[in-house]
């Protein structure tokens, strides 16, 4: 290819060398297009990387903001729930566990405080907020076992008949009370409305501790905060507050039954039962009794349907008779 760099006066060898050099630098077909495409690709990659970085930073800031907002909202809810609970009320479960271990230990004999034996004193005491639990004697050997036992403990035929005894100790009257307690009819619910479950206090007690609030304050995970929020939603806080503010602890502990006697359909068989009543405000034992229960005197139909509940109602009458002889029933 002719070029101004080559003249006729140049040696042929030099002219040929110049022409070869120029020929080697000539752009290949499509080279300009390839260079433009490479530049565009590099720009595109840089744009994608920049977009991803911006998105990540924005997402991180949004998550951090949501976490801060979630933490603040959860702490506000927590403060609203626990601020009205006193330090002594928060210690209720600890004191109750101590009493349960004592009452479930070696039986130290019957005891009835003189303040209960005055006319109407028992009824006045039982009308105050009560914290109730019933379970097998072996179910109170440790706080962990007590928590398991408390899950299945509700106001029952014992509490109903202790608060509102039948007019007479007949199978018909006891069965009616036992059935009312079993189905939790309107009258039974009204009579035992002030009886709180220990389970509620045990289930919710961690939330009332300072450590739970600290966990919320130092949690940096939004998912964890949301999980703690659901935990707060599920906790029986209203029931726990009622339990923590109860004036008295009412306990029923079932000793092992006589294995030589066949059990009824609901598992009831002759056995000894301990009953305890504790003044929680004064940490004072007001009542400790041990009485036998035996469903064998009931008709076959009553034993098959309500042996345990009728025994519980009969036990309540025994307690009332021991505290105020001659006044176990009030005519309900």
How is this structure best summarized?
The protein is α/β, with parallel strands linked by helices and 332 residues long. 57% of the residues lie in helices and 11% in strands.
How would you sum up this structure, described in words?
The protein has 332 residues and is α/β, with parallel strands linked by helices. The chain folds into two domains: 30-83; 87-323, no CATH class. The protein is 57% helix and 11% strand. The protein contains 15 helices and six strands. It has helices at 12-25, 31-82, 87-90, 92-104, 114-117, 121-126, 143-151, 157-163, 171-183, 186-191, 198-204, 210-218, 222-234, 237-244, 300-323; strands spanning 111-112, 130-136, 195-197, 248-254, 271-279, 284-293. A six-stranded mixed beta sheet has the order 1-6-5-4-2-3, with helices on both faces. Strand 5 and strand 6 (284-293) form a beta hairpin. Helix 11 (198-204) packs across helix 14. It is elongated. The mean pLDDT is 86.
Number of domains: 2
Uncertain runs are none
Number of helices: 15
Q: Structural class of the helices, strands and pairings?
A: alpha/beta
**Spatial shape:** elongated
In round numbers, the mean pLDDT is: 86
Strand content bin: 5-15%
Largest sheet: 6 strands, mixed
How many strands in all? 6
Helix content bin: 55-70%
Radius of gyration: 40 Å
Ends distance: 127 Å
The main sheet orders its strands as 1-6-5-4-2-3
Q: What is the N-to-C succession of helices and strands?
A: HHHHEHHEHHHHEHHHHEEEH
